[in-house]
Specification:
By secondary structure, the chain is an alpha/beta fold. The chain has three domains: about 70 residues, NAD(P)-binding Rossmann-like Domain (Rossmann fold, 3-Layer(aba) Sandwich); about 220 residues, UDP-N-acetylmuramoyl-L-alanine:D-glutamate ligase (3-Layer(aba) Sandwich), CATH 3.40.1190.10; about 150 residues, Protein-Tyrosine Phosphatase, Chain A, CATH 3.90.190. It is built from 16 helices and 22 strands. β11, α7 and β12 form a beta-alpha-beta unit.
Length: about 450
Amino acid sequence: MAALLQKSGHTVRGSDGPLYPPMSTLLEEVGIEPYVGFDIANLASGTVPDLVIVGNAVPRSNPEAQEAERLGLPLMSMPQALGHFFLSARRPLVVSGTHGKTTTTAMAAWVYTSCGADPGFLVGGRPKGLDSSFSLGAGERFIIEGDEYNAAYFDRGPKFLHYRPQTLILTSAEYDHADLYPTPQSLLDAFAALIALLPADGFLAACGDWPAVREMAAEAPCEVVLYGLDESCTLRPVDGIESGPWGSRFRIDDAQAGLVEITLPTWGEHNVANALAVWAAARNDGLAAGSIAEALGGFGGVGRRLDELGSPRGIAVVDDFAHHPTAVGKTLQALRMRYPGRRLAVCYEPRSLTAGRNFLYQAYREAFAEADRVYLAPIYHRGRLSSEEILDVESLRAELGGLGVPTVLCASYDDLYDRVVSEARQGDVLVTMSSGSFDGMAKRLLDGLAGGPTEGQLEG
């Protein structure tokens, strides 16, 4: 958001906590150097701002927010500002859902850009192949990731309600963000409210693999295409999906173009579904079938999504953003396709306020059963969860061990690092999973393993 405003000719300054890549490097590249920490002096450094945009991690007690209110400065949430500055005169393509938003948004931005549509876009990650995660563009489309989390302390509704969708992709609907949505139905109600914003001449591409999505899509006020792998979907692969070292291959039966083969350089059924969603939106916008297929074949993925950072000593180090058990399971299935026959070790940090809750216990048990070894970092928000709420990691460790998946409960980041480096062996695939920085664990493991093994480790 800050980068888009800077590129639009506004002067941008601001404050935040310590930042880490890719966001810290993105700001550096556009010439924005944020203040680290919050102080009312930051507001007074230079001219008085015309507008203060408040992120959703900023509480009402924040000193700069309080000072801005005292001075009577105009305040907006980030999604309000996006709607005001960038979406009001465009045709927004909003990508929403519990899972897959960032990858699908990046894929759509890549396809529309590759097909010459020159879209504006804002992706909540670092797309590979594109110059950056944002672009003003000159085309009629603006592609944006529609987050269901709240907008700001003064705007507790979901961000995506500010995004004015003309086309909506709904990838999934599963309970998450328990700190904001008290019940599963309350989250579904938010998605239903988003669908209701679509105009009569709009378009909804909804993943029919999710019963809740099918049910909500039936109430859409516009044209709907159900995509996915389920038989209820009108847009699905013909004759299944083929996987290999090159990725995933499937065919689509297009009403105008006939059978179209797509080779996607990523793995996993969830990524095939993401590609189907983008296909549906792009074809609805009149982009040529052959051009879309060619663009999908060149999609390089997104940083921290099945992102192999290197392979020191024959040990692949992969970084991934998975933080919900469903995403963990789908990521591990995709890694099995990408690295067949190799030992798969998972380093997982329960980072969000939802990830550390015990109602996900059974889902974690099923997801981690796909691994060969699991290293669990301490629950990040353990001090904010009651004994009834917090994930029972001791029982999870015992159950996974009984399933033949050795699970290590690590006392700290350093403990996890030491254990993984000492126990890794040639041919392993190590995947780090967290929705936060994870203390830079993926890079730490990459560097530590590059230091060279002992003979015993190689023999393993």
